[in-house]
Amino acid sequence: MSSPKIISQQELVIEAGHTDQQYWKDIWRYRELFYFLAWRDILVRYKQTAIGIAWALIRPFLTMVVFTIVFGQLAKLPSAGVPYPILVFSAMLPWQFFANSLSECSNSLIGNANLISKVYFPRLIVPTSAVVVSFVDFLISGMILLGLMAWYNFVPSWRILTLPLFIVIAFAASMGAGLWFASLNVKYRDFRYIVPFIVQFGLYISPVGFSSSVVPEKWRLLYSLNPIVGVIDGFRWAILGGSKLYLPGFLLSLGLVILLFISGIWYFRKVERTFADVI
Predict the structure, then answer these.
(1) Please, which residues have CB within 8 angstroms of residue 92's CB and are 6 or more apart in sequence?
(2) Given CA atoms 33, 39, 40, 42 in this order, what sign does their dihedral have?
(3) CA-CA distance, 186 to 253, in Å (whole number)?
(4) CB contact set of 130 (below 8 Å; sequence gap of 6+)
């Protein structure tokens, strides 16, 4: 006679807010998806291009040449005692990182609409992977800066050790702005036209082709309301040495970057649950 089988019953409890509590753990659980999206975007960006990843070098290099001619040769703006190409390119690195992140992030959710509407995963992974792809371009473009330093026999000071700190600030600025525009672009598709304008306009109002020291002292704090100003000044301070960092403006820009980053995550999480329905 066979012994009776004991069937255990598991109770399924659906608890409100449980997903929110596990959200950050889920990001770690879905880390392989993050790797896949980032690697896919890197491959797609340079697929079927004649010179491939060299495009990450050509664009900032040509921009640097134009700015050097216009601001350095024609306008004769001061270069803080360093070769003008190095002055320009030390600002081009964080600016290109920020601009590329903004462009990629704003379209990241729309570009992955099929995935978002069918499968659950923390949506924050999508724009974050877009920023990481832009960071890869940033690292590649850094080769030009190393080449310029070797060409001009320019040796950075000990301040170069602080560069990772300013890279983190640049990452926070790119992530915060990217999350805002990624969220808004899902509901208001007008932002696909607004973002390129912001990127183009921001290039000229940011101290990329010139040093922020040319801005009159009475306007420098107001000028630092552009958060990328503090990022660029920090990069130049770390890479070039020489002139002092304008501390009040840098602290103002840093505070705005932190606010932008925190508010970007907050707003993204607030509207995230509506993406699958709206997209």
Answers:
(1) 60, 63, 64, 67, 141, 208
(2) positive
(3) 28
(4) 41, 101, 104, 105, 108, 178
Write the pLDDT tens digit of every residue in 180-192. 999 999 888 888 8
Q: Which amino acid is at 78?
A: P
Crossing angle for the helix pair 55-67 and 84-111, to the nearest 10 degrees: 130
Locate 7 and state its tokens: 């069937």
CB 188 within 8 A of CB 272: no
Return d(Cα 178, Cα 269) in angstroms, integer.
Answer: 13
Query: Does residue 26 come out as left (phi exceeding 0), alpha (psi in the -120 to 50 range) or beta?
Result: alpha
* Residue-level pLDDT at 52: 66
Distances (CA, A) of 112 to 46, 60, 96: 18, 28, 23
pLDDT value, residue 191: 81
pLDDT tens-digit readout, 84-111:
999 999 999 999 999 999 998 988 888 8
Maximum Cα–Cα distance for the chain, whole Å?
A: 101
Residue 107 has which token pair?
């379209």
Residue identified by tokens 């999480």 is: 269
- Among residues 49, 131, 148, 45, the alpha carbon closest in space to that of 96 is found at 131
Residue 167, judged by CB atoms within 10 A of its CB (0-12, 13-18, 19+), counts as buried
Q: Which amino acid is at 12?
A: L
pLDDT tens readout for residues 136-150: 889 989 999 999 999
Yes or no: say if 187 and 55 are a contact pair by the CB < 8 Å rule: no
User: What DSSP state is assigned to residue 9?
Assistant: -
Rg of the chain over all Cα atoms, to the nearest angstrom: 23
C-alpha to C-alpha distance for 114 and 70, rounded to whole angstroms: 45
